[in-house]
Design goal:
This protein is α/β, with parallel strands linked by helices. 41% of the residues lie in helices and 16% in strands. It has 2 domains: 30-115, Leucine Dehydrogenase, chain A, domain 1 (Rossmann fold); 141-267, Rossmann fold, CATH 3.40.50.720. It binds the ligand Nc1nc2c(c(=O)[nH]1)N[C@@H](CN(C=O)c1ccc(C(=O)N[C@@H](CCC(=O)O)C(=O)O)cc1)CN2. One of its GO terms (cellular component) is cytosol.
């Protein structure tokens, strides 16, 4: 039997509709328009597409968005200065620094100085710490979107074995934290696999939930998937001008119970969750928490 395809585009559209309604209600009650400022340094074409999509999504949801584009030769000191100015600007509720940054800029040094209340990516150590402690302020957009996709399958996650391929700060590590929390869509037993993991295939084969985020095209093949597993593909690889995930979609969908496509899977959900976080930031910063 072929797997349920978890349609990230459709799910994202329904979240975005709901968020647009919440933004309108918030605006009526507070007279505040949530405002996201994104910073894009350099001319990476993929990053340019992502920030443009974020801007469009904001516009449709009634969220103000400002994109600050900086040349690739921008210095770390200049970027720090800009982030500090945005931190101090009370008209800005969310600050997003599009990653990756050019090699000469230390990403950690930049992410560490974003005001944690405006950190709609949830990359600041204070927000990461709150997630680890199980009392999140914001959830990082990709893991947050994945959690919603898993919830949409109605699969009971409690006690299930989730295997995450990849230990990045953006996806792998926070995803593990969300899946081990107590509650609905969580309570899982989690294994994180990475480049030094031994018996990786065997571990993946024991998973009820597979989250592939290693940046290797079609790495997860059908023989690595337990029948009935949920397979979430976070990979976005360009192969011969085509977008390919970290999962061999066509064969794996014959084994899994549910699977996300690439494109049209996790990516669109990442953007929907950014809108959710921006509205949450506007509520927190303006003290309008009840509407
Ligand atoms: N500051 C951040 N930087 C980065 C993040 C992030 O969450 N915050 N995540 C990724 C990139 N990313 C969001 O910024 C992102 C990637 C992909 C998509 C998406 O919708 N992809 C489409 C395909 C689009 C294409 O043609 O390339 C899809 O999967 O359907 C959205 C957001 C790294 N940087």
């Amino acid at each position: 039997m072929s797997a349920e395809i978890i349609d990230g585009k459709a799910l994202s559209a329904s979240f975005r509709e709901q968020i647009a309604q919440e933004v309108a209600e918030f605006n009526t009650a507070s007279q505040v328009v949530p405002h996201l400022t994104a910073i894009l340094v350099g001319d990476d074409p993929a990053s340019a597409v992502y920030v443009r999509n974020k801007e469009r999504a904001c516009e449709k949801a009634g969220i103000q968005s400002t994109l600050i584009r900086l040349p690739v030769e921008t210095t770390q000191a200049e970027l720090i200065d800009l982030v500090q100015r945005l931190n101090a600007d009370s008209s800005v509720h969310g600050i997003l620094v599009q990653l990756p940054l050019p090699k000469h800029i230390n990403e950690t040094a930049i992410l560490d100085i974003v005001n944690p209340l405006k950190d709609v990516d949830a990359f600041h150590p204070e927000n990461v710490g709150l997630i680890v402690q199980g009392r999140p302020r914001y959830l990082p957009c990709t893991p947050y979107g994945i959690q919603q996709m898993i919830l949409s399958t109605k699969m009971e996650t409690g006690g299930k074995h989730a295997v995450i391929l990849g230990r990045s700060e953006i996806v792998g590590k926070p995803m593990a934290m969300l899946l081990i929390q107590r509650g609905v869509g969580a309570d899982a037993t989690v294994t994180i696999c990475h480049s030094r993991t031994q018996n990786l295939k065997e571990i993946v084969r024991s998973a009820d939930i597979i989250i592939a985020a290693i940046g290797q095209p079609e790495f997860v093949t059908a023989d690595m998937v337990k029948p009935g597993a949920i397979v979430i593909d976070v990979g976005i690889n360009r192969v011969d001008g085509k977008l390919v995930g970290d999962v061999a979609f066509e064969s794996v969908k014959e084994v899994a119970s549910a699977i996300t496509p690439v494109p049209g899977g996790v990516g669109p959900m990442t953007i929907a969750m950014l809108l959710k976080n921006t509205l949450a930031a506007a509520r927190i910063l303006t003290g309008n928490l009840s509407n």
